[in-house]
């Protein structure tokens, strides 16, 4: 084997600017110059040391949806995964002992900022291996950028090329990662839907005990409620076993009839399944052991679930036919066109397969078979290696499962918990609308969980301001008025939001959603600590002001003192553990006149309020939405509407779809 080519090229809009930070793309090719075939472990595109030490930070991107993703100090690590969970949560071929970041990574600290990311993911489960040197005198970190070849054979004279690696030095990490995600999306033809799903999912109330009647009852309760959502998704529990997706469990008689009942209630029917994850006692595993990924003639362990679990060999031609038949049944015969595909990592587990391909190629082959079978049906990936899924999924779960509790002591950072979901949603926001639509997982707003009111509200704010999928997963009939109101205030979804302090800490604390119509913003300042603490939002840090520096702020999640919701200037108060100070901000106009400050929508109607204008005593507001929205307008001095009293400093107005005009007098 010999190194035949290293291609390096400058990239980015500033590539010709000598003063701009350097960004280059590097591709390495290898050729087998011997007379016999060889098997390759990997192409190491980079393998060296960096000047970053223990107190510096690394952005570590998780292997799959549930794997923790965050910025840590180089001398910090996530808790070790339990052996039973390792096949699910980690790349089993990655080295143990150091840090592994998948697809991309970033280093920051005293030496500066360095961001690296592979730009194509159809052939390799790319990774970055980071190892902090134990010698304090050296104070550096080794870094390898790896394209694993998983032992595939290279014939004499054949060559293999790495994925392009982008190296971006000096720029802010958030900007560099955003550019890498844009490049990946362009190269891999990302599917980004025009709108994200909203609706209800059966999982977090019924779990596997769900029945068809439960689904019908909740669809009817949604209709009685009148909340503006699109989807009713049936989760795990309808099938007899993982692998036997077309054999129905007790409580389900006909999926086609159930699908029609959901559609007749006015909702898009959705269905969950885990096509590559196989129960050991399923009919599929019993009848077709040759369809499984193996090692030493035994099925590989795919991680715990219902007893032993195995992985489908997606390169086997009979498996390809089975996948096609299964999904044609689900889409063409049963009629489902929204599909949540779970435990997808199983197709990428190490092991022996029918075809001599990399694990990424095997994974992509399985997903491509699904996509070909379902056409333009909406596909949500979950438990999935993210970047290798680009172009084949419409949405991607970006964190672990939520749960009816904040955390469970002793669990790893990949396990179901509200805290674990929050971590990844914050740290994978740069993927949203570049690679897919982000799915933060379901809101739980009922009072009968272990979640506090502050925790329910903070997750609602996070979902509302980041703009991903927005599903509810409580028994609808058990949600009280406060829970319903909280969920309603997160609808409809906005386009996007940004994490302001991304790459500074494990749990970023500021999320901002901007309204272009009048340069207003919604700012969520979170207290992720386990103790109450004072939190402050200064609107002038987020909105432009005139020479007076004046701004207005409205608390969207106020304390019990409702009269203190409108502020002129900074907002500061004590926030409960895991809670949120949510403030809608706008610059104060030079003239004293009514000004739109906030909305009932937690994200300040950022994508729905598309026009705001003031002229001759009339406030005009244009709403691009299907339902009315409540606005809050500051009325300084003697300005009032015909409905407001002289004591009102804040007018509450209802806007309907289209252009609305409100006359004020003084």
UniProtKB/TrEMBL annotation:
Coiled coil regions in record: none
GO molecular function list: alpha-galactosidase activity
Entries under Pfam families matching the protein: Melibiase
Enzyme Commission code: 3.2.1.-
Keywords of this entry: Glycosidase, Hydrolase
Listed name of the protein: Glycoside hydrolase family 36 protein
